[in-house]
Amino acid sequence: MEGVNLLTGLCWDNLLTPLVDASGHVLSILCVSRDVTEKTKLEKELEESINREKLLSNEMQHRIKNLFSVVSGLIFIAEKEAARSNTQDTATHILREKLGALSRASDAVFSGIDSEVCDAGQSDLEALVRSVLRPYGDRCLIGGGHVSIPRKIMTTFALFLHELATNSVKYGALSTDGGDVTIRWKADGDMLDLTWIETGGPKISISPERSGFGSAMVDRIVQAAGGRIDRIWRPEGLVADLHLPVPTQD
């Protein structure tokens, strides 16, 4: 039987042995205790490490699967842009540019832009939004004015936009020829609201019963930053509102 001393944090393994007389009555109980604090800590660290590895594995599988879906969607968009373009740009040329933009956007999302080196200072929210959504061209209508955000929360915004764009290419407005997305934002004191509005995509008859792995992960990241995401599944498309507190600069 293991026990934890809440005051000291020590863990003990207790072996209780009753001492009985000839008639079977318990005279006393012998308790032998072993300090198993280090063993318990190692077991806990091992469990946490295994859970992290499982999470990273699931995240990698999710990203690889999404990559194929996004590339397929970009091929579709590039073909449509080439068909209505008045220039000599081919679908291959347009696709190459979009893949380059997607690579740069992914760097902005996943390269640790909230590391200690880049943690200080402010960045322009509109520049971030345009960087992440550049692969989708004029299918994304962006507007909200100049708002500066601390670099330490750029990753949260970038992940939010990246996940929504990926899902839109797979299932939403960016998966169809006539669909588009509007992104707008406003600052109110120390709170920033960013809204993602999809129109023209496949008609939504019922709200999804559960979210995918990527959406659930983004939700956890936003909640850890003190914010929340509200999703409204309208027949004409998804509306997602990101509400995030903006930390003041030291």
Question: How are the SSEs ordered, and which strands pair?
Answer:
Blueprint: E1 2-4, E2 11-20, E3 26-35, H1 37-84, H2 91-110, E4 122-124, H3 125-133, E5 140-143, E6 148-150, H4 154-170, E7 180-188, E8 191-199, H5 213-224, E9 228-234, E10 237-245
Parallel strand pairs: 5-7
Antiparallel strand pairs: 1-2, 2-3, 4-6, 7-8, 8-10, 9-10
Helix pairs in contact: 1-2, 1-4, 2-3, 2-4, 3-4, 4-5
What does this structure look like?
It is a single chain. The longest helix is centred in the N-terminal third of the chain and has 48 residues, at 37-84. Helix 1 crosses helix 4 and helix 4 packs antiparallel against helix 5 (213-224). The radius of gyration is 26 Å and the shape is elongated. Helices cover 42% and strands 27% of the residues. It is an alpha+beta fold. The strands form three sheets. It has a five-stranded mixed sheet with strand order 5-7-8-10-9, covered by helices on one side.
Summarize this structure briefly.
42% of the residues lie in helices and 27% in strands.
Structural class: alpha+beta
Number of strands: 10
The average pLDDT is 79
> Major sheet: order of its strands?
5-7-8-10-9
Low-confidence stretches: 112-118
Largest sheet: 5 strands, mixed
